[in-house]
Amino acid sequence: MEQESQEKPKFTSAEMGALSHLYRGEIYRSTTWRTRLDNTTNWAVVTTGIAFSITFSGVNASPLPLVLVGLLVIVFLIFEARRYRYFNVWRARARHIETELFAPMLRGEDYQRNGDWNLILANDYMHPKHHISMLRAIGRRLRRSYAWLLAIQAIAYYGKLTIHPAPLDHIGQLFERAAIGPIHGEIVVFMHAVFHISWIAVAIGTLYHDKISRLNRRYKGVGMG
Asked: Can you tell me where the transmembrane regions are (predicted)?
């Protein structure tokens, strides 16, 4: 009798139906926020394309639009990282239900209240919060999309300096062409290099942090993210 009293109650058919509707709701919300992520990426792609068109419209066109678009892409990246943090909440909840409820059910295993998966999910509803930091969100979006945009921007920028208005004769010409008004070309090239080294460091550093987090997340307050 004591053993039976300690057993966790099984899900009723009504509770299973409620969980199914809950799962559908989380899928809908994650899909909606995923669309918003695509919109931000589209803005970054379009503005980068416009900068390319302006910069390569003629041999004497300024490379400055390529510098400015790099900064604008970072702004879009920050917007998208913020949206990704919200998207990750809905995605993680739906994924948690899939792996802890539906997957055991499909394998013919006991999918009832075994373990603490239901408590983790309930705690996330009772005390909602972002599952990842802003920096980790930026790193994820960098690795998925924005690293390619920024890499292409860097190649285009130095390509412009190298071939227009004529192919380089010596390295000094590169700095002359990179100058922006009173700012010397050496400073511009240095800051450009620091800019790209910084986002590469963020992308790699957050990748390591994500791997560590995946190993430990099930033993924290929310086993998702």
From this structure: 40-58, 64-81, 146-167, 187-208
Mean pLDDT confidence for 82-110: 88
CA atoms within 13 A on the CB side of 29: 19
Q: Closest Cα to residue 126, out of 221, 12, 30, 33?
A: 221
Q: How far apart are CA 225 and CA 212, in angstroms?
A: 12
pLDDT band of 113, cuts 50, 70, 90: low
Q: How confident is the model at residue 47 (pLDDT cuts 50, 70, 90)?
A: very high
pTM for the full predicted model: 0.84
Cα–Cα distance between 44 and 33 in angstroms, integer?
Answer: 17
How distant, in Å, are the alpha carbons of 40, 47, 137, 166 from that of 146? Answer: 11, 13, 12, 30
Residues 6+ apart with CB under 8 A from 59: 164, 165, 166
